[in-house]
Structures are given as C-alpha cells and as structure tokens.
Specification:
Growth Hormone, Chain: A, globular
C-alpha cells in the first residue's frame, strides 16, 4: 500500500474526535429543524380556510402537493446527499427555501403561489432528514452513531415541543399569520447554526455509509443501485417500516375525529395535549434507547418493543371516547415513535455500512413511511365510515400485530459483531474491505 493510501486508512471506530463546536452545531440543527422540516403542516389549511376563505377543494390540492413532492423527492434527495460533499450547504439551502416558501404564502396567498411554495417545501423537507443523518455519521462514525442518533432525536422532540407551545400561544393570542414567521425564523436560524459545524470534522466517505479505510486504488465506489434490491434484509426492513406506519399513522387523526364527534369543542385542545405529551415522552425514550444500545441490547429487540406497543394502543383507543383517556393512551405513541426515530436510522446504517448508499436508504425509508401512512389513513377512514371508530382502531391493531410477527420472524439482528468488525478491519489493512453486500 502506498504512503497516500496508508495515511487515508483510519479506524473510525476509535479515532473520530469531532470538536465540541461541531457537536453543538448538530444539537442546534436537530432542535431547529424539528419545526422546519414539517413546514406549516395542518396550520396552513386553517389559515387558508379561516383567513383567506378558500374552498376546501383548493386547500386539498395545495396540501396534497407538498406530500406528493416530498414522496417523489425522497430517493433523488438520498442520492444527492450521498454524492454531494457540500452537505452543510444543502441543509442551509433547504432551510432558506422553507423560509422563502413561508413568506410567499403569507404575503401572496393565491393558488399558483401557494402551490409552487408547497411543492418547494415538500422537496426541501425530503433533503433535511438524510442530510442530518449524513452529517451525524460523517462526524461521529459508525460506532458512535447510535448514541448520536439518540441525542439527535432528543433535541428533535424538544424542538417539536417548543414549536408546538410557541405555535399554540402565537396562534391564540397574536394571530395565525405569526406561525409563518415562526417557521421562517427557525429556518433562518438553522441555516446559521450549520456554520458551527467545522468542515474538517466531516468524513464524507463515512457520511454516505462507506468505510474510512480506502482500497488500494484510493477511492470507494458506491454499490450499484440494482444490488440494493438483492439485499433480503433491506427489503424486509422496508416492508416492516411500511407495516409499522400502516398500523400507526391513522390512530391519532381518528382519535381526534372521535373526540370531535362525541365531545365537540374539545378536539383541538385534546389533540394539542396529545402532541405535546407525546413529544415529552419521546425526549426521554430517545435517551433511553441510546443507553440501551450502548449496553449491548440488539436493535431487533428494541424495535420489537415499539411494534408490540401499537396493537395495545389501538385496542385501548377502541374501548374509550374520553378525551382524557385519549391523551393518556397517546403517551404510548411517544414510546413507540421515540423508539422508531432512533432505531430505524441505526438499522439503516448497519445495513448500508460499506455500501456508500446510506442516505439513499434514508430516502427509501422515508418513502416507506409515506406509503404506510397513506395506507393507514385510507384504510382507517373507510373502515370508520362503514363500521365505526372501534372497528377502525381494531383493524389497525390487526395490521400492527402482523407487523410484529413479520419483523420477529424474518428480520435478522443488525448490530455489528465486534469480533467480525475487527477481522474486517484487519482484512482492510491488507486490501479492500469486503462490503456487506459481498460477504
């Protein structure tokens, strides 16, 4: 091996030592981007209906536009983040695009402008999650990623909680138009906070799921896209993600509809309490998941806990119409979603290690989340329409049980074996490290 290649051989398991400034930058980004990457969300429909007196059909078109743009952008966004070293620029640009879109909607609430802004917001939201994951992996390395993702999710949920409180206060006492300025402020702040991350702290090969050690020709080549679909464990994982959100996504919206019908006037308050309470639980759960993984517990066991919670939550929802009970039951979603937010990213990292396609896998996972959520809302809505709310919750619970069984039977444990990892690194010192796809 020549001198250049020897200098490039680094053990990311032991020698990643990013500066405290870069780590604080990651903390700040995850806190601020919690509100930015979701855009205006359901508040846009309220603004267009109550302030601008739009027809429901037009509101539906612009709301759907953001979701469709986000879904279509997931895979291209993952490929872009994998291939582009300027990840700080990408995340800053995404934040500024969100800020611009919010201001356009606030000042020019005409259909063509809002539609264009929503498409832009959807595309920008697809770039943010893989960028955050890539920066995290590129800064701390594979071994420390579980702890970093756990910390990311803690700051993310704290940001969501803060944004929910601020949005509720501003919307109630100042006016709904200030929600646009709130998201815009968070977006601009995130574009500035990313400057705290030092470029030299980012290993761009690690950031896309590669290895630090270079092969003899001095460069890594990402695994061909066709090879991804030959990975049985990746396909199983993506199916499990679809089933997880199929069984989960519609439960809270259906619970809100149920409260609106049985207890008119309490739906907004109850839903706000559900969101805030769940976010607080997620902060704690994200930290506990990180500690559990550091203690050596496998990713599969932790994910199974999240899957086991879903049918319990669905059955409990089917047994009550009390808004107070709904808020209490929703705490279970804080546990399940808190686990998913950490473990899913870590599993994707495990599966893609050495492939150079980590951020593409993030895009595929986000697409699977969207597909599962769409199936959940459509199926749950039609079941409730024809058979009532208890039946809707029970059907989603059955799907959740199927997800639990499927994952338990077919998904392997992905936590790297330390002995095998050491062997692989010793192989890498003699020549190119074999990729997971080649083992």
């Amino acid at each position: 091996m020549n001198a250049t290649a020897k200098e490039a051989v680094r053990d990311d398991e032991t020698e990643r030592s990013p500066s405290p400034r870069s780590l604080r930058g990651l903390d700040g980004l995850n806190f601020l981007m919690a509100d930015v990457r979701d855009g205006l969300g359901p508040f846009l429909s309220v603004f267009l209906k109550s302030n601008q007196h739009w027809q429901s059909g037009s509101i539906g078109i612009v709301m759907a536009a953001s979701g469709i743009a986000a879904a279509m952008s997931q895979i291209p966004a993952g490929l872009l983040v994998d291939s582009m070293p300027a990840k700080r620029f990408l995340i800053a640009l995404s934040g500024l695009l969100v800020a611009t879109g919010c201001l356009l909607i606030a000042f020019f609430p005409a259909l063509p402008t809002v539609l264009a802004a929503q498409i832009t917001l959807g595309a920008a939201s697809a770039i943010i999650p893989p960028c955050l994951a890539a920066l995290s992996l590129g800064i701390v390395g594979h071994r420390l990623l579980p702890a970093r993702i756990s910390r990311n999710e803690g700051f993310n949920h704290a940001g969501n909680f803060t944004a929910a409180v601020l949005a509720g206060t501003l919307g109630q006492y100042v006016g709904i138009i200030w929600l646009f300025y709130l998201v815009c402020g968070f977006a601009v702040a995130s574009s500035l906070v990313v400057l705290l991350i030092k470029p030299r702290d980012i290993d761009h090969e690690l950031a896309r799921g590669g290895e630090s050690a270079l092969p003899s020709d001095g460069q890594h080549r990402p695994v061909p896209l066709a090879a991804l679909w030959k990975r049985r464990d990746l396909v199983i994982f993506l199916i499990a993600v679809v089933l997880f959100h199929f069984g989960n996504a519609a439960m809270l919206p259906l619970a809100g509809q149920m409260i609106a019908r049985v207890h008119p006037g309490m739906d907004v308050i109850a839903l706000g309490a559900c969101i805030i309470a769940a976010q607080l639980v997620m902060v704690v759960v994200a930290s506990l998941v990180g500690r559990t993984m550091r203690a050596g517990v496998g990713r599969k066991k932790i994910f199974l806990v999240a899957l086991a919670i879903l049918p319990i939550r669905g059955v409990l929802f089917s047994l009550t119409t009390s808004p107070y009970a709904v808020v209490g039951i929703q705490l279970l979603d804080g546990v399940a979603a808190g686990i998913f937010g950490v473990v899913a990213v870590v599993i994707a990292s495990d599966l893609m290690r050495g492939s150079g396609r980590f951020n593409l896998a993030q895009g595929l996972m986000a697409l699977a989340v969207g597909v599962g959520a769409a199936l959940s809302n459509v199926t749950g809505g039609f079941v409730v329409q024809n058979f009532g709310f208890p039946a809707g919750f029970l059907v989603l619970s059955v799907v959740a049980v199927a997800a639990l069984i499927f994952f338990a039977i077919f998904m392997p444990e992905t936590r790297p074996d330390e002995g095998r990892g050491n062997a692989d690194r010793s192989i890498g010192q003699r020549g190119p490290t074999p990729l997971p796809f080649q083992r």
